[in-house]
Design goal:
The complex is a heterodimer of chains A (318) and B (304). Chain A has 318 residues and is α+β, with helices and mostly antiparallel strands. Chain A has a six-stranded mixed β-sheet with strand order 6-7-8-3-9-10, sandwiched between helices. A five-stranded antiparallel β-sheet of chain A has the order 13-17-14-15-16. In chain A, α2 packs across α3. Chain A is elongated, with a radius of gyration of 24 Å. The two termini of chain A are 37 Å apart. Chain B is built from 14 helices and no strands. In chain B, α2 packs across α14 and α4 runs parallel beside α9. The radius of gyration of chain B is 27 Å and the shape is globular. Chain B starts with a helix and ends with a helix. Classes of the chains: A alpha+beta (318), B mainly alpha (304).
Chain lengths: 318, 304
């Protein structure tokens, strides 16, 4: 179901959490709310879910204004940052909760819980308690619990924030595949641009309670609308008011007079990628990203003086 | 750049710690230190044990000893006199009314103080603790001033044929007042620790406020509540001062077990007094035991 947020404002005391925020999320889309902490992304998610009420503005889900409707009537599945497991219930009772408060028949509940636990690959752990699960398993249980009531919209607050790197990568991939399978309109909050780029079809970049830019990952990377988006998404070198992507810097094998002279301060090998830290002749520092092959060909080493060609830098009006 | 910096810092930190470790003094003084700390530990334990023994275990053991000094028959006789039996049942009756009242009120008040946002919350929180601070005798006197014959509500109560002072309703009120803070104070920290995430999750899953309370909040705070109930029960059973004043101490009418103990003691009926005291102690023990069994069983079931 499509979600529309219209000119929403929210303050907590003196703190402005959201300022004139409007977003549109298409039916079945997978959207990321991306921003640093305190940017208002979680507040926006909670307002869509009905866990907070906006001071002004509207929330429209599937054409119905739900701004003042209680959370339980919105048909929204919410996965909390720390999963909010019901600790006194088994995994299957956790997943069954939404159906059981709706007083569905026992057989139906059992069948649905079984199906969901298979979907999130927790079949063998149905009788366990949350305290006996790992972080990744808790996350999947929370997801199954939210999906049990067949929500129109799935909202996830920092879904992978509390997990270690490997489990994170696995769950990201899995969430994307799950979304392809069940196609429920999904919004997730993250502060990790790589996660947003990898998982989402659309990214909404937020900062200081405002929306900086919304678009596809590629759009945002290639055509950032402002300084913040440019520096938040993807690596960047700042040269005064201008910005340069590290992979746009060309290191020349021979000085042909068109380049700028630079001193190699440090060469960092990161596998396929090699990071070259440079100091320009005028003292400005920046780093370039080259492939392993290119680095080998250029025989890069610290202390070397070479010639680089800078792309046309991007400057944003402030 | 930023990812490599903390890593190298951590390595430096580890080497630093190892270097410091190798410079530690030789192991002999360490052994001496261990011996000294063991001695200190034993001293602390002995003091704690002596304190408890002198103040609690000794006196209670003496009561048991003096009660059963002349065998079981006089004890059984003393325990089954009509006045003793009446006092026993009256005490249970008061507990059976005052404790559920304070439990329901206590949970509600804890929710209000912990989750509510309103003016005067701090003042209300302080008021809740007042029964802890005020002497029970003062509580009893103040109740007489309100509900007694010449009290505020005295005329109105008399007109409607309700007697509060010198009868069971007054004793229930007095008991409820002095044991009021326990459930509130035991529940509040557990409620805080539980947080609101679970309740909000239940709400997004379609649960009503009532369903959320019964299925998520209450199970989450049950240990706080149970502990509060046990303390309330113990306090209600043992209450003397406030109840003594509002009851009028009429034998076989308004005499609870603690009042009965006092009455027997004043009338030089040592066996009667000791027997009732033992019954009181056993009731308290039973309450503690019940809580422990309950706690162990549910904990094993939920593994939390």
């Amino acid at each position: 179901m499509a979600i529309e947020v219209q000119e929403v404002n929210k303050r907590f005391g003196d703190f402005v959490a959201l300022e004139d925020v409007s977003i549109t999320v298409g039916d079945g889309a997978l959207t990321a709310l991306l921003g640093p902490s305190g940017s208002g992304k979680s507040t926006l998610l909670r307002i869509i879910a009905g866990l907070e009420t906006p001071d002004s503005g509207d929330v429209v889900i599937d054409g119905h204004a739900v701004t003042h409707a209680p959370a339980r009537t919105r048909g929204v599945g919410f996965v909390f940052q720390h999963y909010a497991p019901f600790k006194h219930m088994t995994v299957q009772d956790n997943v069954a909760f939404g159906l059981s408060v709706r007083k569905r028949p026992k057989d139906e509940i059992r069948a649905r819980v079984h199906e969901l636990l298979a979907l999130v690959r927790l079949d063998g752990l149905a009788a366990r308690y949350p305290s006996q699960l790992s972080g990744g398993q808790l996350q999947r249980m929370a997801l199954a619990r939210a999906l049990a009531v067949q929500p129109q919209v799935l909202l996830l607050d920092e879904p992978f924030g509390a997990l270690d790197a490997q489990v994170r990568a696995e769950l990201r991939e899995w969430l994307r595949r799950l979304h392809e399978e069940i196609h429920v309109t999904t919004i997730f909050v993250t502060h990790d641009q790589e996660e947003a780029m990898e998982v989402a079809e659309q990214i909404v970049v937020m900062n200081h309670g405002r929306i900086e830019q919304a678009g596809t990952p590629r759009d945002l990377y290639e055509r950032p609308g402002n300084e913040f988006v440019m520096s938040f998404i993807g690596p960047v070198n700042r040269l005064g008011d201008a910005f340069v992507r590290p992979h746009d810097i060309q290191i020349l094998s021979e000085s042909d007079g068109t380049g700028t002279e630079a001193l190699v301060e440090r060469v960092v090998h990161l596998g396929f990628e090699v990071r070259v830290e440079l100091k320009l002749h005028d003292g400005r520092e920046l780093w370039a990203q080259v492939t392993r092959e290119a680095a080998a060909e250029l025989e890069l080493r610290e202390g070397q003086i070479l010639s680089v060609r800078l792309p046309a830098p991007r400057v944003f009006a402030t | 750049m930023s990812s490599s910096a903390p890593g190298s810092l951590a390595v430096a930190g580890a080497t630093g710690a190892r270097a410091a470790g190798s410079q530690r003094p030789a192991p002999r003084p360490a052994v001496q230190g261990a011996r000294a700390s063991r001695r200190r530990r034993w001293t602390v334990r002995a003091i704690a044990l002596a304190y408890v023994a002198l103040l609690l275990l000794g006196p209670v053991a003496m009561i048991f000893y003096r009660t059963f000094e002349h065998g079981i028959t006089p004890v059984l006789n003393a325990a089954t006199t009509p006045s003793a039996a009446h006092a026993f049942w009256l005490s249970l009756e008061i507990v059976a009314i005052a404790v559920p009242l304070n439990t329901v009120f206590g949970i509600g008040m804890a929710l209000l103080l912990e989750r509510g946002r309103f003016r005067g919350k701090t003042v209300l929180g302080l008021l809740i603790d007042l029964p802890f601070a005020i002497s029970p005798v003062v509580v009893g006197l103040s109740l007489v001033l309100v509900y007694g014959k010449t009290g505020w509500l005295g005329d109105w109560l008399a007109e409607h044929g309700i007697q509060v002072i010198f009868s069971v309703p007054g004793m229930v009120i007095a008991t409820a007042v002095v044991s009021l803070p326990f459930v509130v104070r035991e529940t509040m920290p557990v409620l805080r620790e539980l947080g609101v995430d679970g309740e909000q999750a239940a709400e997004t899953l379609g649960a009503s406020a009532w369903q959320t309370f019964w299925r998520i909040t209450l199970p989450g705070i049950r240990w706080g509540v149970v502990y509060g109930v046990v303390l309330t029960t113990a306090r209600a059973l043992g209450e003397f001062g406030a109840v003594s004043i509002v009851s009028g101490r009429i034998e076989e009418q308004t005499q609870t077990l603690p009042l009965y103990v006092q009455d027997r003691f004043e009338n030089f009926d040592a066996t009667g007094a000791y027997t009732a005291a033992v019954v009181l102690a056993l009731l308290a023990l039973a309450t503690l035991l019940a809580m422990n069994l309950l706690a162990r069983r549910t904990r094993r079931r939920t593994q939390v």
